[in-house]
Amino acid sequence: MNSIDLTARFVSTITWDKLPESVQRKAWMCLVDNLGATLAGTLTRVSQIGTDYATQTWSGDEATILLREKKSSTIGAAFANACASNGIDVDDSARYAYGHAGAQIFPTALAIAEARNLSGAQMLCGMVVGYEVAHRVGRCWHASRSVYQACGSWGSVACAAVAAHLMGLNETQVKHALGIAEYHAANLPMMRDVDDPGMVKHGIEWAAMSGISAAELAARGFTGIPSILSLQEYQEWGQDIGQNYLMVNGVAWKSARYACCGWAHGGVEGARRLVEENKIALDDIEKIRVESNSGAARLGTRLPSTTEEAQFNQAWPLAAMLVDGEIGPNQMLEHRLSDSKIRELAQKVEVLETEEMERLCQLFEQGDPAGRFASVVTITLKNGRAYNSGMVDGGLRFPPSGWDEERMADKFRWLANYVLDLQTAEETLGMLFHFETLSSVRQLTGLLESNRRKEAQ
Asked: Which of 126, 133, 162, 391 minimizes the number of CB atoms within 10 Å of its CB?
């Protein structure tokens, strides 16, 4: 059977009770991680702009725009919440898709589930569908294109799968939904935004909008092209859908207090370890050299003036970590970008691409166990003494290690603390722990609407 036929059958027929326990646990972890990232992301300017645009363009009261005391149509709420989901770049990464899957899948599933008054288990199942399609379509997508496209490109197809599942489309309609989303998918030249960061970023909000639109069109009889999963050269990558759940080992989470592009994590972690282990006084530092892959080198060392420039940067998050001990909204939002201490330290950072780091990174992306997503940091003091970190991996590892429910809850609390009062944060976390038993997702959105919004500290 062709991979697109298997995918359409999976999308249209899978239910929560049929999923293995390991998949259900992973889905729950992804839910908590994405909600925390979205809540904190509402502090960004892109979230406010996305909300204003969504409420004016897609008026309605079908679904909630989180922490904005506003509702919109299903598409509008998904669009606005997606702007927040990746707003501070603390959300997950998908193994073969080389990008952020959950920040697209979560707001899409939440908006549709709320609008249709679906249960927690139904929403979680919709998220699983999205992740499984994202891994396979994303892999095909990158193999078929010479220019690295941001995740909102293939994400449109993943979001269409989420929508098609939650809307109850049949197999034929699912195929058309995926084909419509693929044909209408945005062209997102990722590295151009890395070079000159803007709010366009990963194009995640457009993926949510495009995916839902595709499913709604397919439900009405609108037809699309055959999906990339139908092509002969990609059959191997789609044949195991519904049997081998790639999300279990293929979704990795950013550690708490690491809200920046994953390419920068190795350099940040290497510098942090050197300073802490050798008790280096920041005022004694002459320069910090980061040797890494081409992606980290492209992030560069410019002093940022926007949160997007701060996220797509090697020097700023590294300096912020050394000064504050974390990288979160307080370090990445515009109100902090004039901090003289962080700026002075950031100006001491240089980042270089090396052949070895690039070779290891490419192996890592290809799934070769010999690959490393790493950097080497050298800190030189004003007295000439130098400290070298050796090769230090970034926080994203496949399969992810060291994560359990307690650690994920701690990350959620860290992020939620910026925007939720303590009582609402704990009630929300309690509800998430039993999310699959909720009769309606509206219980979650209703609880969050009752929150007394906090300002950034």
From this structure: 391
